Amino acid sequence: xxxxxxxxxxxxxxxxxxxxxxxxxxxxxxxxxxxxxxxxxxxxxxxxxxxxxxxxxxxxxxxxxxxxxxxxxxxxxxxxxxxxxxxxxxxxxxxxxxxxxxxxxxxxxxxxxxxxxxxxxxxxxxxxxxxxxxxxxxxxxxxxxxxxxxxxxxxxxxxxxxxxxxxxxxxxxxxxxxxxxxxxxxxxxxxxxxxxxxxxxxxxxxxxxxxxxxxxxxxxxxxxxxxxxxxxxxxxxxxxxxxxxxxxxxxxxxxxxxxxxxxxxxxxxxxxxxxxxxxxxxxxxxxxxxxxxxxxxxxxxxxxxxxxxxxxxxxxxxxxxxxxxxxxxxxxxxxxxxxxxxxxxxxxxxxxxxxxxxxxxxxxxxxxxxxxxxxxxxxxxxxxxxxxxxxxxxxxxxxxxxxxxxxxxxxxxxxxxxxxxxxxxxxxxxxxxxxxxxxxxxxxxxxxxxxxxxxxxxxxxxxxxxxxxxxxxxxxxxxxxxxxxxxxxxxxxxxxxxxxxxxxxxxxxxxxxxxxxxxxxxxxxxxxxxxxxxxxxxxxxxxxxxxxxxxxxxxxxxxxxxxxxxxxxxxxxxxxxxxxxxxx
Length: 584
Prior knowledge:
The protein is of the alpha+beta class. It is built from 16 helices and 21 strands. Among the domains are: 116 residues, Succinate dehydrogenase/fumarate reductase flavoprotein, catalytic domain (Flavocytochrome C3, Chain A, domain 1, Alpha-Beta Complex); 123 residues, Up-down Bundle (Methane Monooxygenase Hydroxylase, Chain G, domain 1), CATH 1.20.58.
């Protein structure tokens, strides 16, 4: 029976986290409206290649959900809240079984059991996978379930609509304003519960492994409306990206899990430096460790291939059947975009911005500090601490969608009666301010190109807030970001035709990206230690006495105001994190 008298729950974002939450709410007979910037099947979740972590131990290695939990906390350098991570790891097998029931065809062994591959940061095979298109297959199966509920009138989709603003009174969310990216029509939706599932913000760095829609604009918008942003300094740099002209193509960690090796030349001989530096883990050390090692070899030791910032990822010794079946996506990317046959020649790679461990701050039920606004998936901060293990992203996305649904239901059922006059007033105010902003941008007639400003910001972030940071450069980066914000006011817009519409939307996104870029930089500037993906040579060691805490950024007109929150360490006492001997 459909719950009556309740406004539909608004879910912003059509990736795995958002679709999972939508299906779980529909199963509870709660109506849902999905707002997606692109067709949901084109969401960035489709780009997740390698797999999803869950303990099935079909290879009989003595694996357990507790081992998965330990590896995740250790890999995140003890900054993740342990109770939440433990629950996620314990729920992983149930999630896989749920996805199988939806129709996901994970790879299996000849006896019918799930096949498992190795991924970084662990010593046991626990990554369930569907070739190298795991995310795409899971996304499509979730979308099919959404279609089923759409036919029953439980879910509506609004594709090609962009989130613009929350509608709220005081500290309570009442709905959203969205804009059609083709017609620029504005629309408001009333709801007591809004779930943001809008992914990461890699486009802040210009070129990254992310889709171009990953601007972080929605997260930045609600940050500017009062939501706290947590751990902004922790940005994952993936070790193996192919540097294209306008896009960096990810080469999945699955390639190393299936036997790929990283090397460069030293003294005119191949040097498999990860295997030498980290003999217990070899090419499957966690991503922050591998990325720093490649950076050290290329930048500090100047041993990059052909004298450039690149090393080899070598798949020539990987069996042809594995390349064609289990790594088909990797092989196709190399052949179709770079005319490389990985069976015949090694792939030139270098680390690239990939994932935001930080995100909107949420409680254990995924609610932000604004009542009724929830956040799930990559745009929340909950599960990865200072560094995400490979194949935990799909797990966190789906688990957060699972977890949020019953708590959203509890919240809306416990709401007091609606105040229609208050809604009308707050909606009118937000719509009016949104139209005024649109008109202001539409008639901007300065001499700055928004695309050039974005390029400068990406270069700035890639130079000063990448693998290696120092306080002098971070301070310089913030000063330059403030200069870019001032120059933003002097942008010129070509407002004619369809190009004009896209330019207006991009200018608004750019302003939001600049705000989040300052969160990254200021959060990094304050944290005087090295932990996970945040590395400062001037403070080379982890300092738990001072920095075992979550960074909280609050928006102010002058810039982010930083405070801190204690980390839940209720199960494991933080210890030394090292992968150069036996590791954990």
